[in-house]
Write a structure and sequence with these properties.
single chain; mainly beta; four-stranded antiparallel β-sheet; 0% helix; 48% strand
């Protein structure tokens, strides 16, 4: 983590309408996980398109400076996204 401090969080109530992952905050990178209890997949992308699909329990890491630039939605129903920011 190169001396960064991890800050974890959870975005709940994600539906088929895209929402920003978290409020604006400086970070070095973000780790995302589709919550293992999700009944459907999580879609991740930017404000206009969410095409990266994560099945329940799957994760990925993104080098981005602000979690508000990451947008999430569900394929159907309601899902949860767990995340950790390296600040």
């Amino acid at each position: 983590m190169s001396g960064g401090v991890p800050v974890s969080g959870t975005k709940t109530g994600i539906t088929t309408t895209p929402v920003a992952l978290a409020p604006t905050q400086f970070c070095k990178s973000i780790g995302l996980q589709a919550d293992p209890a999700n009944a459907t997949d999580l879609l991740i992308g930017d404000e206009t398109s969410q095409t990266m699909q994560l099945a329940a329990g799957a994760s990925l890491s993104i080098e981005v400076r602000d979690p508000s630039l990451i947008w999430v939605k569900s394929v159907s129903g309601t899902v949860i996204c767990n995340f950790i920011l390296v600040v």
